[in-house]
Structures are given as structure tokens and as C-alpha cells.
Amino acid sequence: MPLSDELRDVAIEFHCPVCSYPTVRKGSWLRTVGSFKCESCETKVRIGYEDKLAIFERHLRKR
Ligand SMILES: [Zn+2]
Fold this sequence. Notes:
alpha+beta; about 30% helix; binds zinc ion
């Protein structure tokens, strides 16, 4: 399953795996990013393709 194009302009919430702090970013950002820095615990979190799929899927299921 490819990363859905329909979420490009949608704000998607995901959580830091270390401290569970929620981060909200647009789908377009998520699709291209390889890692991000948690604003709370400052951990550099890697986001692989599988992680992105899981985040997108979770968001789609919530609607
Ligand atoms: Zn964190």
C-alpha cells in the first residue's frame, strides 16, 4: 500500500515512542521526513516507511 496522497494536506497526530508526547504534522511532511526531534524529550526519532504506513493507517481508521 502506498502512502496515501489524500492525507497530504491533512494534519496527522503521532506520538513520540519514548515519552508519548503528541506531534502534529501534515501528511506531506510525514511522507518525506526520515526522522524528527521530539519537542518534549528531544529524542531524535527515526521514522521509517513502515512507521509512516502505521501512522497513516491509524489516522484513516480514526475517521
Ligand atoms: Zn519524546
